Amino acid sequence: MHVAIIYNPLSPESTRLSARLADWLRARYVQVWRGVSHEGRELPAPERVDLIVALGGDGTVLRAARLAISWGVPVLPVALGRLNFMSELTPETLYDGLDTLLRGGGWHDRRALLEATVRHQDGRVAPPVIALNEVLVARGEVNRVLIIAVEIYDAQVTTYHADGVIVATATGSTAYALAAGRSEAHV
Length: 187
Prior knowledge:
alpha/beta; 2 domains; four-stranded parallel sheet; two-stranded antiparallel sheet
């Protein structure tokens, strides 16, 4: 098995745990690639990765998810940040959880993703983006209302006259509801 460990360099706990985890995995004959979360998207992909372990908060998990999408592998989030809505494990349960995975146990929770393409009125088309949480189209520095036509699979849904539009997945909308202090997420 080949495991990529993505950690938050601004968190001493994440940095320490990533080094200990790498040693623990190598002792079990697992190949390890270790990278800093904000640099991970700029580094070349390892030859082979079967799993990404993300050590940090939801920001680290989202950066790991971007890599996971391009590498085609799952992410195992470990709660080490201020916001940990997406984490399954804590530092205390990490080794037991990974031991279960290494023995073929556990489950793979598939999350819905968004793919968005922005087409400008002048014919320019921005490269498509893929997102785990949300896609935001906003006016930015433009000091006027935008006209945003929304299509899904080439079918016109609606047109908004607004400062912007946020389209969220179930993962993103749940995180926003929890962050706002709601006990239940309403989709």
